[in-house]
Amino acid sequence: MSKIKAAFFDQDGVIIDTERDGHRVSFNMTFKEFGFTDEWSVEYYHELLQIAGGKERMKHHWKTKGFSKPLTEEEIDNLVKEMHKRKTALFVELIESGQLPLRPGIHRFMKELMDAGIKIGVCTTSNEKAAKAITEKILSDIKFDIVLAGDVVEKKKPDPEIYNLALSKMGLNPEEAFVVEDSKNGVKASKAAGLKTIVTFNGYTEEEDIEAGDVIVSCLGEPDGEKATMRKGDIKDFDGIVHAKQLIELFG
Q1: Active site residue 159
Q2: Which of 186, 73, 90 is nearest to 129 (CA)?
């Protein structure tokens, strides 16, 4: 019998390819609303993605480049909180409007996990409202046993705290769960927690150092849609589609 009892998913870039056309767009809309001329390009946002957390990215931008209007330390702390709240609302609107589709194979894969009796969790540095917009609306037919989001942990990825918390809350040992991640920081976090990890890279993360992942693929693949290519791993009978039972066997 398999030892695997749970699968933990990162959100941004794994469930939905949200970074470039979701978060980045929402940040730029927010800056404009707040009277700033700052605009984060696709390339610059890739740099900012090396820092986990939206509030942290805005603070880093202020420290390294400065906003288009000068701000003191006291002003930036309060403003970042306000802007992040508005940015999250705009991001949730984008998700709910259906403008950001699920990544190939993610819904099918989660359904397969449910059918196999595997518990499902989300572990993300994204805001709780954004996480709920996905788990409770877009993926409303999936049973999530745990959703950890935003500031639920003090240290964000690449620190393993969020995955350690998920294991603790579910009463599991690291060998009883695996993770679906997409980025260098995510893989560092999952591996530091001792978890087997499949990496589904995207346009932002395919050039990152994600080689610590146990399996590395372009996506999970759809029978009637986009097929996955495998960069690393030993999935039995791989045909461009990653099935839950294959990973349960491989990681269990």
Answers
A1: no
A2: 90
List of domains in the chain: 6-17+102-251 (3.40.50.1000), 19-96 (1.10.150.240)
| Angle formed at CA 8 by CA 189 and CA 207, multiple of 5 degrees | 50
Q: Is the pTM of this model over 0.90?
A: no
Catalytic residue among 10, 38, 182, 214: 10
Count of other CB atoms within 10 angstroms of residue 122: 25
135 phi and psi, to 5 degrees?
-70, -30
21 catalytic per annotation: no
Q: What is the 3-state secondary structure (H, E, C) of 80-134?
A: HHHHHHHHHHHHHHHHHCCCCCECCCHHHHHHHHHHCCCEEEEECCCCHHHHHHH
Cβ atoms of 22 and 94 within 8 Å: the answer is: yes
Show the DSSP H helices in the chain as ranges. 24-33, 42-48, 54-64, 73-96, 106-115, 128-133, 161-170, 184-192, 244-251
pLDDT band for 1, please (50, 70, 90 cuts).
Answer: very low
CA-to-CA distance for 33 and 252, rounded, in angstroms? 50
